[in-house]
# Entry
Amino acid sequence: MNADVVLAAKDGCRRSLARTLSALENNTLDIADALSIIGEVNSDNHHDSTWKIMAITGAPGVGKSCLVDKIISQWASQGKKIALLAVDPSSSRTGGALLGDRVRLSVVDDIMLKDRVYVRSIATRKSSSSVPAVVSDMAKLLLALGWHKIVVETVGAGQSEVRCAAIADIIVVVEGPARGDGIQAEKAGLLELADAVIVNKSDMVGARKHADEIKQSFELGDGQIPPVLLTSAITGDGCQFASDVLLTLQSTGRSSKARWRERLLAGLEQRVLQNPHLDSVLLSLAAGSIELEDALNKLNN
Ligand SMILES: Nc1nc2c(ncn2[C@@H]2O[C@H](COP(=O)(O)OP(=O)(O)OP(=O)(O)O)[C@@H](O)[C@H]2O)c(=O)[nH]1
Ligand SMILES: [Mg+2]
# Structure
């Protein structure tokens, strides 16, 4: 990749930014090289001791995108520059994004705010890197380019998506109202990672009850209990309060061990995927000439 494109991205050219991020996604640009091209940027990030990368995750359709739209608008109107990385659950079988009909964020059409907001979808099915590694590299690049806060929206279903959340400094889990079949995030293993929980769709019946159930579930465990907030991304109820709470949210001690476990596993996966012998080891496994244990030994160095 041409260094001029990276430098143009640094100068604020959105098209060059998109190309630079694509190059990270396609493995034609290494994050270390990108950072050295950019050099030290003059940003006020150094004075901000709160989180840099926040993940918003939760079951499909709970209203993550609508909520992100509201929250980003609040922060952008306070002068923050926010980049949203929306991880598209893509299928390697169909080769396409499953959710083609993502909601369009109103904040990107807001004349006053759009210069402070950048939105990028990530469908990394073509990449030889693991998805969390790509998301993490993109977030690092955007921070180096002077974006203040990176928000990663990822569906909290499936291991790879959960690991995308684990690259963040703080994780916000979104739930919908009670459906009578328990806490969705708990089933997906997300609650242990949560630094805050938002029960969205508070305009619908069962939201308050569900928030109480989640609080009770936290009280049964040990460690610091994260805030459990109610919002309606449609009416706007609770969104201002949620934005304020999230902006200064600290990671809880109880979530950090779970987060490091996911990061560790993602790192091991990345190491295997980038091993130059992967292809030949897979062929040997398929031919039955080596055992799984041998393959693991070959790849794990
Ligand atoms: N009643 C009500 N509907 C909502 C609320 N927030 C979102 N919705 C609706 O829920 C649907 C899904 O919203 P999205 O924001 O796309 O949900 P999401 O969690 O981002 O969905 P995926 O990205 O597909 O997982 C849309 O039809 C929204 O209009 C809310 O607070 N109340
Ligand atoms: Mg969404």
Notes: Residues 60-66, 99, 103, 155, 200-201, 203-204, 232-234 surround guanosine-5'-triphosphate (ligand 1) (CB under 6 Å).
